[in-house]
Backbone:
């Protein structure tokens, strides 16, 4: 039995995996066990912001392993305080809770919004407004917030009191607001759901609605935050601040860590004993978080994301013009979607065969989440293969 067959028998079949064994990575390239080279245009679903084996990052992690790895949250550590400060600076918010994934960040944010509501109403009967095509994770709370019945169907009963409004339709949100509404949760740029971007006016209207009715605005920047769209947080391009922001994926750049971050108003609702996580924010992952923000802050990384994404956008727009089967391009920065009029699966497979890794977002969107360190030549590599493959559909 070869290793691939062994793998097929070893895991719960929760994923449809490709039949490739990835062995190592360097920079923007991955290599399989046959040393076939792949251009990484998905960064492990928006995680590996600096590609593979990025020296400043792995050096910092190695040093931390030789210093301190885990102590639990009964104690402060210098590195966890530094990481929390970096997150506060990056988000312009006030208090951080470190957890281990995006799903947990969502769960924590939900609990905090509910706690605030409970202190105000002395009753645990709050409601949440989420959006169609959203994605917030896989736990029975986060999957309920995910506005896609496909993910929920088999796993009920889920949490109660969730309504789904239409993105960029403020009236559809208003229709669900009542005195029990505790929170509105939205991705400024939807990832899994197909790269739908919030309009600036819409996010501002949401902010105003939340202020008017004392509702918690939770932004899910698990995928679109930490520099991916060209600013530290995507909401910084919308001139608003959330009450709580949820982070994961790129915040650890490969180490499993998430966070939810609250402003003072909501932070006050949390008391010792309300929430916890054994691993959450241990010294090792906090070194990853601190180093991620150091790199984003110091090495002109965000300027590079802005520049190279402009080039990617211009090249993708040419593809849209050239091919009838390509409907449009959507996205921001290095989080881009190419919307096809045909199912994307065979196109993604052809790209893979040609040595380029992208992912889908739904049935008909090719999603591109390249590492921030890509250069124009890598964009050209993608576009030239994409052109070749799409020509077959002419
Ligand atoms: C990936 C993702 C999540 C869930 O994160 P996990 O780390 O997989 O639990 C939540 N929200 C958004 C927007 C995501 O992209």
Residues:
């Amino acid at each position: 039995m070869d290793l691939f067959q062994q793998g097929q028998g070893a895991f719960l079949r929760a994923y449809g995996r490709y039949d490739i064994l990835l062995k190592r990575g360097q920079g923007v390239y991955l290599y399989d066990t046959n040393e076939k080279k792949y251009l990484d245009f998905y960064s492990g679903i928006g995680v590996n912001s600096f590609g593979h084996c990025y020296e400043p990052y792995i050096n910092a992690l190695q040093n931390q392993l030789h210093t301190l790895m885990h102590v639990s949250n009964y104690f402060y550590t210098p590195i966890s305080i530094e990481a929390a400060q970096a997150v506060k600076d990056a988000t312009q918010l006030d208090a951080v809770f470190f957890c281990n994934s995006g799903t947990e960040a969502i769960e924590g944010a939900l609990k905090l919004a509910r706690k605030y509501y409970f202190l105000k109403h002395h009753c645990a009967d709050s409601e949440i407004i989420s959006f169609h095509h959203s994605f917030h994770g896989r736990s029975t709370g986060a999957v309920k917030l995910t506005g896609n019945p496909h993910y929920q169907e088999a796993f009920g009963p889920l949490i109660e009191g969730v309504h789904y409004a239409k993105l960029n339709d403020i009236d559809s949100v208003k229709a669900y607001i009542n005195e029990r509404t505790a929170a509105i949760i939205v991705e400024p740029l939807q990832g899994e759901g197909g790269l739908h971007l919030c309009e600036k006016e819409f996010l501002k209207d949401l902010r105003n609605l939340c202020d008017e009715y004392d509702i918690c605005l939770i932004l899910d920047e698990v995928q679109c935050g930490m520099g991916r769209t060209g600013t530290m947080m995507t909401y910084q391009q919308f001139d608003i601040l959330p009450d709580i922001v949820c982070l994961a994926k790129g915040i650890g750049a490969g180490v499993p860590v998430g966070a939810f971050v609250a402003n003072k108003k909501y932070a006050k609702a949390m008391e010792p004993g309300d929430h916890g996580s054994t691993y959450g924010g241990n010294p090792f992952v906090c070194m990853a978080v601190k180093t991620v923000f150091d790199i984003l802050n110091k090495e002109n990384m965000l300027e590079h994301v802005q520049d190279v994404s402009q080039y990617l956008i211009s090249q993708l727009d040419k593809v849209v013009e050239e091919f009838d089967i390509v409907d449009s391009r959507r996205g921001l920065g290095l989080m881009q979607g190419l919307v096809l009029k045909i199912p994307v699966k065979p196109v993604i497979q052809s790209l893979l065969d040609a040595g380029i890794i992208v992912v889908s977002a739904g049935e008909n969107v090719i999603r591109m989440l390249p590492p921030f360190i890509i250069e124009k030549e890598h964009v050209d590599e993608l576009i030239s293969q994409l052109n070749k493959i799409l020509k077959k559909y002419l």
User: Anything to note?
Assistant: The chain has two domains: 3-54+300-391, 57-298. Residues 101-103, 106, 135-137, 187, 191-192, 220, 222-223, 248-249 surround pyridoxal-5'-phosphate (CB under 6 Å). The chain is about 35% helix and 15% strand.
